[in-house]
Amino acid sequence: MPVTPFVAPELFDGLIEYSKEVEHDKETSSAPTDFCDNFYAQFFQNRMKQEITGFGNAAKEMAIKLRLKTKESREIVVLITGFEKYCDLRYDVFSEEYGGGSGNALSEFQDYLDNLLERIIAWAGLEKLTDIERSAVEARAALQQALQSVKK
Question: The pTM is what?
Fold first, then answer.
C-alpha cells in the first residue's frame, strides 16, 4: 500500500513552471508565495500534526511555541524557523507589490525561496522522502537557472 507523502511532490511542479516563465520574461514575481503557502500548510498539518490557519502574527506565534517545545531534528527546527521568517517576508512582498515597501522584498523573497528549497532537500534526505527530495532538487535547479538568466 503506497504511503501518502507529508508534502505532495507535485507541489514543486509549480516552481518549475514559474522558473520557465522567469527565464522567458526575465522578470520575477510573487507567484511562488503560493508554493510556500501550500508547502507550509501541508508540512505543518501532515508532518507536525499542527494545522496553520494563516500567515500572520498568530500563525508565527504558534510556530514559535511549536519550535520551542519540539524534540525534532535540526532540519525540522530550521523549517519551522523558516516559516516564522516567511510570515514577515510574505507581508513585505505583498505590501511591495501593492505600492508599499522598500523595493527589496521581492529580491529577498527569491533568496528565501532558494534557502527554503535547500532546507526541504535536507529534511527530505534525512527522513528518506525520496520523491519530495527529488522534486525539490529539480525545482531548486530550475529556479537557480532562471534567476541567473535574469541577472545577466
Answer: 0.92
- Provide the 8-state DSSP code for 103: S
Separation between Cα atoms, residue 143 and residue 137, nearest integer Å = 10
Q: What is the C-alpha radius of gyration for the chain, rounded to an integer number of angstroms?
A: 15
First and final C-alpha spacing in the chain: 48
φ, ψ for residue 89, nearest 5 deg: -65, -40
The dihedrals phi and psi of 53, each to the nearest 5 degrees, come to: -115, 10
Residues 86/115, Cβ–Cβ less than 8 Å: no
**Nearest to residue 47, comparing CAs of 137, 111, 126?**
126
Higher pLDDT, 98 or 16: 16
Count Cβ atoms below 10 Å from residue 41 Cβ, excluding itself. Answer: 16
